Amino acid sequence: METQKPAAPLWQRSAVELAAAIRTGDVSSVEVVRSCLGRIEETNPRLNALVDLRPDEALADARRADAAVAAGERLGPLHGVPVSTKINTDQRGHVTSNGVAALAGPPAKEDAACVAALRTAGAVLLGRSNSPAFSYRWFSTNDLHGRTLNPWDADRTPGGSSGGASSSLAAGMTPLAQGNDIGGSIRYPAACCGVVGVRPTVGRVSGWMPPVHIETPDGPARLDFPLTAQACAVEGPLARTVADARLALDVMTSPDLRDPFGIPVAPGRPAGGAKPRVGLVRDIGTVRNHSAVDAALDAAATRLSAAGYEVEEFEAASVLAEAARLWSLLIYEDFRAVVPLVEQVGDEGIRTSLRYSFAAAADVWGERPTLDAYIQGWARRGSLIGRLQELLGTDRVLLTPIAAELPFEQDADLKGAERASEMLAAMWPMAAVPILGFPAVSVPAVHADGLPVGVQLIAGRFAEELALDAAQVVEDGAPRLAPSL
Which end of the chain is more exposed for a tag (fewer CB within 10 A), N or C? Predict the structure, then answer.
């Protein structure tokens, strides 16, 4: 007689599976939340990924979700499914600290639009994920909440700035997480921890937030979000599977006319037809890939070819190289205005990292770029967007590395200007995409040296589905491994 395999614990199941099981009454939201809370209790003391937990609040929401099921009410696509939110994003009743004690003021009165969309879809908001101070490092440590560890290797970064989100997902604390991305802050943490991250097209998921009012040693101050934050930053999902990420993206898509770059309607799926072509961009000629990075690209290309995609080396490197170079001009020059505030209220880590980051950018643009260079940079950005969309058309996706290196050693950005320059060069795939505003998906491809190694798939504007389809193929052939915790 064949022995039946025991069912996986609820915390191990995907968001798609959990949503279906809760909807049919096979499991309750309370059972799922309790399972996740148990996993959090087991793993979070070591990883420090979730930093604001309110079990009673989450369980109360889960009970309401179960009551809605019992009453036959209309249910959202994530009804009863736990999701974490990030400490730099407003969640009603919770502090939006951004890892900075001076920002840890009164609780937010309203949800950010992306959080409201998750709540409307029925998600149970379970925990706030850690980030670096000001969400401005490729690491996730701050003096307010401490250091988040990578569950695969504590000596490597879990990524930043959504490192708490990626670490918690890899450990099984929740099936979904909300994050944001202006320089790889969704895609890089996802790759570091072996999960999936989606950076949507700018405007698809509302990123609107009101100005921040804080108390500084010099008195009250208002912080309006700079132009690059408005034009290049996005909100998006992290998940353990491509299917879960696709579901979360659909839920988070939130037309919002308060967002200066928002679109009034949700984009539709591209019309069916032949599989798109895949353009492989292995590097931009400025930095050599780690051998495991090339192995991940080769594995992804092989899987896509076997699935019927036409894969070819593609001449988009010059566009991506120029976009990555512009990132170190436009992002840093916008952030320069925030430096005095960082010096006043930021921790030593962000102050040191920022100093070396500006030194790395100075190697490219000089010590103090001129206003004319900044203006021309914005003008050039528009031309590059048009050029890349021409290259992609409606039938191509790009396959690139996540970074030229494996996940950085913890606090690598504090080791000096030379290491900061190496990191900036290695992160060209993360920097190029935000400047152009295109969608991209980070998906695990192989494992090497005990670490997950991912690849990035870039699609044309509002063609997230093409990138997700290709990412699904990469995921289908990847080894299903989990960190030992």
Answer: N
d(CA 361, CA 367) in angstroms, rounded, equals 8
Residue 461 tokens, joined: 């504007």
Residue 42: which CATH number? 3.90.1300.10
Rounded-to-5 percentages of helix, strand, coil across the chain = 45, 15, 40
| Interatomic CA distance for residues 305 and 284, integer angstroms | 23
Residue 3 is assigned to a structural domain of this protein: no
Tokens 């063609």 locate to 463
- Does the residue 243 lie in any domain? yes
Integer Cα distance of 35 and 37 in angstroms? 5
Q: Is the peptide bond before 206 cis (omega within 30 degrees of 0)?
A: no
> Which residue range forms the structural domain that includes residue 153?
11-476
Which residues 6+ apart lie within 8 Å of 446 measured at CB?
292, 295, 296, 299, 452, 453, 478, 479
Cβ 408 vs Cβ 132: under 8 Å: no
Q: Which two tokens stand for residue 424?
A: 């900036």
Question: Which two tokens mark 150?
Answer: 């990578």
Nearest to 53, CA basis, from 76, 140, 45, 181: 45
**CA-closest candidate to residue 283, choices 426, 407, 381:** 426
Is 307:187 a contact under the CB 8 Å cutoff? no
- Cα–Cα distance measured from residue 86 to residue 145, given in angstroms and rounded to the nearest whole number: 13
What whole-number distance in Å separates Cα of residue 276 and Cα of residue 280?
13
Closest CA to 148 of 118, 173, 115, 126: 173
Q: Report the amino acid identity of residue 242.
A: V
Total count of domains within the chain: 1
- CA-to-CA separations, 204 to 83, 91, 106, 114, 255, in angstroms, rounded: 20, 20, 29, 10, 7
Does 5 reside within a domain?
no
| Cα angle 470-119-126, degrees, rounded to a multiple of 5 | 85
Query: How do residues 37-94 score in pLDDT, each as one tens digit?
Result: 999 999 999 999 999 999 999 999 999 999 999 999 999 999 999 999 999 999 999 9
Per-residue pLDDT band at 315 (split at 50, 70, 90): confident
Of 423, 420, 426, 419, nearest to 354 by C-alpha is: 420
Record the pTM: 0.96
Amino acid letter, 458: I
Is residue 485 one of the residues assigned to a domain? Answer: no
